[in-house]
Amino acid sequence: MKKEELINYFSDLMSDSRGITGFVSENSSHYLFDALSKIEEVPLTKVQFDQLLSLQHVKTISDDFFRFYWLDIPEVHFYQVDAIEIRSDIDAITSLKQLKWGFNRLFMDTIFVYGNIQKGYEALCQLNTTGIKEVFSQYIFNTSQIKRRGNTLHFEEIEKGDRYLISEMACKTFADLERKEDLISFLLLSYRNAVKNGVKYPSFKDLLDGKYADDGGFKQMSMFDLEFTLTEMLEYSIQSEEDLLEKARHLAERWSNAHTKALKNTELYLSLVSDLDVYVATSMRTKENFLNMAKFCELVFKSNKLKEYDLRYFDPTISAADSHVDKGLIECLMVKSARMLIYQAGDRDSFGKDVEAAMALCLGKPTIFYCSSETKERFFRDVHPLSRLVNFDNGVAGGLIACKDVNEVIEIIHRLITNTMKYQITRRLPNSNYYLLEERITGSTIRVQTDNELLSSVFWNSYHT
Fold this sequence. Notes:
This protein has helices spanning 3-9, 30-37, 46-55, 63-71, 96-114, 117-124, 129-137, 143-148, 168-180, 183-196, 204-208, 223-229, 241-271, 287-301, 324-337, 351-362, 374-383, 406-417, 453-462, and strands at 44-45, 92-93, 278-281, 313-314, 340-345, 367-371, 388-390, 397-399, 401-403, 423-427, 435-439, 445-449. With 465 residues, the protein is of the alpha/beta class. It is elongated, with a radius of gyration of 29 Å.
């Protein structure tokens, strides 16, 4: 190949920039083009590679680094390395395809771990094999250990139709009623007043909104909280005082039973915090939200592809706390401890759920957004600037993975825990130094390297000061 053809062959990876990303470019030494043009007849050795790097003012590499990226296919990495034929009879690069394959791996590894290809290259290039593997070990899931770790203590089963009763709003309602006024007494008084006013069969909603109460209803709490708590009974027409008492008492018993079980489950989650795989972040405002969330968790974690791993996941529909402050602390701990987070985007998203997702991204954890709406999927994947947040520990900008259906969520989780994720390097513009690392199934950008030189230099010079 001639110089122009060689530059074009590497153009999807290389740019005219300084450093390792400009190794094959218009600025490259004529020695490089001469070596690459005859690489199949005269394989490129490590010594020659070092010379070519030096001629372009790029830091040279260790023998182990050369072998790791151009001569070996790792048995386990944090993603699935594309297979390639490599000659075992010679410790040299024997084709342009092999050379490009190694650079592609190097660029993906360094932008993933360091957020900057040149910065990552300089950190890795002189390490031995042990040192290189140690860098990546923190991103590798121990799949065999996950499969053989055994069962957890049994969680309390809560009827799906009763799970909405353990919501913070429902718990607040019942707790407030115990302190301030008995629910049954209030409803009974309202019912009697309604009958006096000629309303023979008032609904629970009519009684709750204070229409028939002398004091105008529960001024001390949100009617939304009360209506949420009694959501399935709102349109029910009361037939008699006995009917009212039976329905209200039955609801209170169901709440007490569900709440007690949810508190026990929270204790079990706390005992499991060091072995938590997935945190599920969602906002649930209606009984239907709770039912849909419970169904989603079953579809994902009991699926054929994941059930053999018996993943430990925080199910928000079966856990509660007596204090909203404790609830916040528990959720922060769970996000911090979990290996990954799933965010279920709804019609209306909440501050709490957004904060949980932001925490996960800033901790550098895989963060999966499940968006049943295509519009929301595009918004989170391509539009919102904070779909990528900076890891506070190392400054690496990490992005979320936006999935459009449950099957994609299942596949992403499976690939993560089996270290078979598939990524690709792209550029924002041809020949630019603006690199994107994308997840292949969804096209989500999970790492970014900007080509804004001022931003880049100020960011990395200032971030750790």
